[in-house]
TrEMBL record:
<dbReference type="InterPro" id="IPR000415">
    <property type="entry name" value="Nitroreductase-like"/>
</dbReference>
<dbReference type="InterPro" id="IPR029479">
    <property type="entry name" value="Nitroreductase"/>
</dbReference>
<dbReference type="GO" id="GO:0016491">
    <property type="term" value="F:oxidoreductase activity"/>
</dbReference>
<dbReference type="InterPro" id="IPR052544">
    <property type="entry name" value="Bacteriocin_Proc_Enz"/>
</dbReference>
<dbReference type="InterPro" id="IPR020051">
    <property type="entry name" value="SagB-type_dehydrogenase"/>
</dbReference>
<protein>
    <submittedName>
        <fullName>Putative peptide maturation dehydrogenase</fullName>
    </submittedName>
</protein>
<feature type="domain" description="Nitroreductase">
    <location>
        <begin position="179"/>
        <end position="367"/>
    </location>
</feature>
<dbReference type="InterPro" id="IPR030965">
    <property type="entry name" value="SagB-rel_DH_2"/>
</dbReference>
<dbReference type="Pfam" id="PF00881">
    <property type="entry name" value="Nitroreductase"/>
</dbReference>
Length: 398
């Protein structure tokens, strides 16, 4: 039987402070430090505490070459190797170890940069709650609590040497751009018209062209940029209130321009799921439609293999797409939102995604504004974002 260490493994020396009662009674220093060795392996999706013997063993085993188990047991001890195999930090070629071995192999085939995978895996939320009824603090409250914020601008260069620029020219996009804002007060009864949804999805996530760029290789041309022109981000739509579409989860196909049903449900179930997805931010959960942006990482890493910037490029892709979505929503007379404060693990469960191959990045959504505001919004030209009613806008729903 042969063994090797898992592909990606990081060890954190975690110090915990406590009270040393014996030292306290002696009149000496009262703080005592305890060191714990914490192993983080993305294929396990959980932290594991290691003993000193286990730490020594994983440090002595390679991740690439399979070695005889007997030789490793002679070096590190039978019990230690057995424990590491049970934890999944060491892998075996034995048939009974196939499930864990295949999990590790899947990780290797994705071509992640190890540090990026570590950050992605262990920054995902599961059941985080922002808190029902939480209101955004005003600037005045934040200043009272934390003092003035850092300056809103910075300057560079010597005084008097800045070059004045002419006033910006007006353009066709101005009206839409100035109408764009992050909505936090959606009408909980509004229904989106299907033709509005179709335009939002096709112009944001849809392919405007499909080009064959090589044997078996196709490139999508979209209206937002993407690293390497690869467009790895998939759109999964949580429908709450869309005319003619049952509440539920759908995948948007960017070439066929279709909604592919994944899970249907009633409106109450969709609302519960929306709250769970956006970590209980009820000001976003009222939107009639939410779109999960999840990247098929191999689409990106196929070109940028083990590249330290590849995961950052995926985040940039999501930012480009969300801004396009914002502008299309503003064009339709609606506010929109994008948030990364989401419960990725809950989303993965609902969509049957594996974080090693499908990276949930953010959620965007939109809908008609409510008649009155209960949550603060920052709108262009709005002197008091906490109290003014929303401006009149053309209807995007029914």
């Amino acid at each position: 039987m042969k063994i090797r260490r898992c592909a990606v493994l990081y060890i954190e020396p975690r110090e915990e402070l406590g009270i040393d009662l014996a030292a306290l009674f002696r009149g000496a220093g009262t703080l005592a430090a305890t060191m714990r060795w914490i192993a983080m392996a993305p294929h396990l999706d959980a932290e594991v505490e290691l003993s000193d013997a286990q730490l020594l063993a994983v440090g002595g085993l390679g991740q690439s070459v399979w070695t005889e188990r007997a030789a490793s047991e002679e070096r590190f001890g039978q019990a230690t190797i057995a424990q590491l195999l049970a934890l999944g930090l060491v892998l075996s070629d034995a048939p009974e170890a196939a499930a864990m071995r295949e999990r590790d192999e899947k990780l290797r085939l994705q071509h992640w940069s190890p540090l990026s995978l570590l950050a992605h895996t262990f920054s995902r939320w599961s059941d985080m709650r922002a808190g029902a009824g939480v209101q955004f603090s005003t600037y005045q409250e934040l200043v009272a609590l934390s003092g003035p914020p850092p300056p809103s601008t910075v300057g560079h260069g010597a005084d008097g040497q800045a070059i004045p620029l002419p006033a910006p020219l007006g353009g066709q996009l101005d009206a839409t751009m100035f109408a764009r804002y992050t909505g936090r007060n959606f009408d909980p009864r509004a229904v989106l018209a299907l033709d509005v949804v179709a335009r939002l999805l096709q112009r944001t996530f849809g392919a405007q062209e499909l080009r064959e760029v090589g044997p078996g290789a196709h490139a999508l041309k979209k209206l937002s940029p993407s690293a390497g022109g690869l467009h790895p981000i998939e759109a999964y739509v949580l429908v709450q209130r869309v005319d003619g579409v049952a509440p539920g989860l759908y995948h948007y196909h960017p070439v066929a321009h279709t909604l592919e049903p994944m899970t249907t449900m009633d409106g109450a179930q969709a609302r519960v799921l929306a709250l769970q997805f956006v970590a209980d931010q009820q000001w976003f959960a009222d939107a009639p439609m939410l779109v999960v942006m999840a990247a098929r990482v191999l689409r990106n890493f196929w070109k940028y293999r083990n590249h330290p910037k590849a995961y950052k490029a995926i985040s940039l892709d999501a930012g480009h797409l969300s801004q396009t979505f914002y502008l299309l929503a503003a064009e339709a007379g609606m506010p929109a939102f994008v948030t990364a404060a989401i419960n990725e693990r809950a989303i993965e469960r609902a969509l049957a995604l594996d974080h090693l191959g499908d990276a949930v990045v953010a959620i965007c959504g939109c809908g008609p504004a409510a008649a009155t505001r209960t949550t603060i919004e920052l709108r262009y030209g709005d002197p008091d974002p906490g109290s003014l009613p929303p401006p009149a806008a053309k209807s995007a729903g029914r």
